[in-house]
Amino acid sequence: MLLLQEKIKNEGKVLSNYVLKVDSFLNHQIDPELMREIGKEFARRFAAEKITKIVTIESSGIAPAVMTALEMGVKVVFARKRKSLTLHDAYTANVYSFTKQETNEISVAKEHLHSSDRVLIIDDFLANGQAALGLIELVQQAGASIAGIGIVIEKSFQEGRSLLEKDGFRVESLAEVASLTNEKVTFKEEEGAFV
Amino acid sequence: MLLLQEKIKNEGKVLSNYVLKVDSFLNHQIDPELMREIGKEFARRFAAEKITKIVTIESSGIAPAVMTALEMGVKVVFARKRKSLTLHDAYTANVYSFTKQETNEISVAKEHLHSSDRVLIIDDFLANGQAALGLIELVQQAGASIAGIGIVIEKSFQEGRSLLEKDGFRVESLAEVASLTNEKVTFKEEEGAFV
């Protein structure tokens, strides 16, 4: 998605070979026009899948997920990282964060996921794949089917995609970052372009 | 906002005289069509205010805030409850949650709030007003001006509105719940209707 790639090039900050900060439009400040375009693109890519529910995780997944849901005419449910006081009967999974070096129990209320659902999972980043795997686990506990995983920014030099594809899941990423070395964002399609 | 009141009547669950659960469309599962209507209504009410930025707090404020921002053509920044590893130079405030009986330090990166900003604060609920007061504090630290506070659901039997109005802030709530007694939602305009 060219618009997203341009935004990453112009506003993304490479903090290390592994960390890309996109706080100006996705993870802290949010650009709603860009989110709408992202929603349209996910809706287009999964148009044939008869999606009935979008599942994401708080907080940064919510904006792209809601815009995709608006385009598709379905509802979103976001998994919570901290148990709500009013959330009792829930599917739960453990998600390890390599960045924060901690495990969070994520949860979704059983009443919002059904075995008849055809689910699209949306998240802001794909790196090690741990959040996506946790969301898949929640959806599978409900007996629902998974049409695929829609990712805004994939760090394709990490193992997330291969873990998900190994399990047979379709992964659609709107920007695939091949490298963050030399303080520079290189997208997958640019890689080796000058070889 | 009638559409919202109907949704609360039909799907809201009164858990106690103080707790209204709206997890089916606002706080856990999200109804994107309703969020769009909410965004349009906030944009209409604050149309004259020349808003340049919307400030909200993760997680449940994000969906209504993003839709309002889309309508208004501005960006949103959401305050974080837990400090991000990549968030260093930030405005911070302490927010006490009566429900959870804990204090969270909320923060917004300085680069996303400027003294020239005219801010609309959006949140999902107004009860004791502590979250709104914390957000106001962040905006004031930046030297930005505050056009008002847009609330999706106000529990008007709690003190939030009076605390905010005492400080001179305009509060616009799309649904004002006057009472949750007898396991029933009574809106402000219904109160005393049969007296």
TrEMBL record, chains A, B:
The gene is xpt. Pfam families: Pribosyltran (PF00156). The keyword Transmembrane helix does not apply. The keyword Glycosyltransferase applies. GO terms for molecular function: xanthine phosphoribosyltransferase activity. InterPro entries: PRTase-like (IPR029057), PRTase_dom (IPR000836), Pur/Pyrimidine_PRTase (IPR050118), Xanthine_PRibTrfase (IPR010079). Converts the preformed base xanthine, a product of nucleic acid breakdown, to xanthosine 5'-monophosphate (XMP), so it can be reused for RNA or DNA synthesis. It is found in: Cytoplasm. NCBIfam families: PRK09219.1, XPRTase. Its main location: cytoplasm. This is Xanthine phosphoribosyltransferase. Keywords: Cytoplasm, Glycosyltransferase, Purine salvage, Transferase. It comes from the Bacteria. Its EC number is 2.4.2.22. Pathway: Purine metabolism; XMP biosynthesis via salvage pathway; XMP from xanthine: step 1/1. Xanthine binds at residues 20, 27, 155. Homodimer. It comes from Ectobacillus antri. 5-phospho-alpha-D-ribose 1-diphosphate binds at residues 127-131. Residues 34-159 form the Phosphoribosyltransferase domain. Belongs to the purine/pyrimidine phosphoribosyltransferase family. Xpt subfamily. It catalyses: XMP + diphosphate = xanthine + 5-phospho-alpha-D-ribose 1-diphosphate.
